């Protein structure tokens, strides 16, 4: 017969503990202790599940360090791109960059190790230019394709759901010209709305970084000759039909070098220039060679931009409506803006997508901001302009 060990609780008077010290040292496990242990294990398991539930794949590794802060994004943009011979053609390269170095007062920064398998930028890196997509020139840092074919259009595009439902893209342009309006647009508009910067603006690099941190996709407006030029003047370094091809390309590169981290360009004015295939061809070739998208603002029925873009393999989108026409007024009327937005909703439901453009008037920003808060409930997805572009290279 097996020997019975342990305390003989049955022989002990109620309320008396014959060996408290031994019990405290963990003699026989009681039912109460077992229940406590099981409860603790359940709590720990639940906490671990909750902490892991929202973590997606390819989460960057963040490491606190005490090394000197890296240069600001402007300094990064001015550095030359890595040599194509530094790694096999088309091979992705991991890179280590510091996030928000200018906001770190402790002397310690946060380093994010980027996953080379990701095509686009991580949201926390969206304000930092990808040096592999920059070419140094006398005009400044120009966008360029990577040797493996990756384009700025791919790298800087904002992600969207990819579903087949009705979707609308809105571009608000003229940013950088007014500091107040630019800040207002970035703060008030949903990040799905694309922001377009004028090359003649001020502090463009800083505003680009602010917009990208806020989640916006960015494009660049290029001044092109309208009918009635020079009385109607888009501004400095306008591309014109009376200028040589070399000079127009020089002016285009000046504009392209004003900011980084943008997916494409959009004409500013340009009804006369965009109607001239002879002058549009070299411009579209340059845009395509640099891996950028072209957006036609839709204000000219004579534009040959679509045919030129598809011929040159350039991602292309054309606006369906100018949402804030001013006519003879100095500013648009909110009621008219809402009518144009309603029209975009009808187009999106019928065709699957629609694109509208507007300017950074206070009335436009406020009206679009209010509309954007409600449109999702009506079954419309707001998307960046890259989500409605036709990409010949994706076919």
Automatic annotation (TrEMBL):
Q: Which UniProt keywords apply?
A: Membrane, Transmembrane, Transmembrane helix
Which stretches of sequence are listed as region Disordered?
A: 1-23, 70-109
**Which regions form coiled coils?**
none
Compositional bias (Basic and acidic residues) spans?
1-15
One biological-process term from Gene Ontology?
Answer: carbohydrate metabolic process
Name the Pfam families on file: Polysacc_deac_2
Write down the CDD domains for this protein, in alphabetical order.
CE4_DAC2 (cd10936)
Q: Enumerate the transmembrane spans.
A: 34-52
The protein's name: Divergent polysaccharide deacetylase family protein
Query: Which species expresses this protein natively?
Result: Nitratireductor pacificus pht-3B
């Amino acid at each position: 017969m097996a020997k019975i060990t342990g305390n003989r609780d049955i022989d002990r008077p109620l309320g008396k503990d014959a060996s408290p010290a031994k019990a405290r040292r963990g003699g026989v496990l009681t039912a109460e202790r077992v229940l406590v242990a099981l409860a603790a294990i359940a709590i720990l398991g639940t906490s671990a599940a909750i902490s892991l539930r929202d973590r997606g794949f390819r989460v960057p590794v963040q490491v606190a360090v005490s090394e000197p802060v890296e240069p600001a994004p402007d300094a990064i943009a001015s550095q030359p791109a890595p040599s194509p011979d530094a790694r096999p053609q088309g091979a992705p390269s991991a890179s280590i960059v510091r996030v928000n170095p200018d906001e770190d007062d402790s002397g310690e920064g946060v380093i994010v190790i980027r996953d080379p398998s990701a095509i686009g930028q991580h949201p926390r890196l969206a304000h930092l230019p990808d040096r592999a997509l920059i070419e140094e020139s006398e005009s400044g840092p120009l966008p360029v394709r990577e040797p493996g074919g990756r384009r700025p259009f791919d790298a800087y595009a904002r992600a969207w759901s990819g579903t087949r439902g009705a979707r609308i893209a809105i571009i608000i342009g003229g940013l950088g010209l007014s500091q107040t309006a630019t800040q207002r647009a970035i703060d008030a508009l949903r990040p799905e709305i694309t922001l377009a910067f004028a090359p003649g603006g001020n502090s463009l690099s800083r505003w680009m970084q602010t917009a990208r941190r806020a989640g916006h996709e960015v494009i660049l407006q290029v001044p092109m000759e309208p009918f009635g030029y020079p009385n109607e003047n888009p501004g400095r370094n306008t591309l014109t039909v009376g200028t040589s091809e070399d000079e127009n390309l020089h002016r285009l590169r000046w504009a392209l070098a004003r900011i980084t981290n943008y997916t494409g360009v959009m004409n500013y004015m340009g009804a006369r220039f965009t109607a001239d295939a002879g002058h549009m061809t070299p411009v579209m070739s340059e845009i395509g060679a640099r891996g950028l998208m072209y957006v036609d603002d839709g204000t000219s029925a004579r534009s040959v931009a679509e045919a030129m873009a598809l011929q040159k393999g350039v991602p292309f989108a054309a606006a369906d409506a100018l949402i804030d026409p001013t006519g003879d007024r100095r500013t648009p009327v909110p009621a008219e803006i809402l009518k144009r937005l309603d029209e975009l909703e009808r187009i999106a439901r019928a065709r699957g997508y629609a694109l509208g453009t507007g300017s950074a008037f206070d009335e436009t920003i406020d009206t679009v901001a209010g509309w954007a808060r409600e449109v999702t409930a009506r079954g419309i997805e707001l998307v960046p302009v890259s989500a409605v572009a036709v990409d010949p290279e994706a076919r």
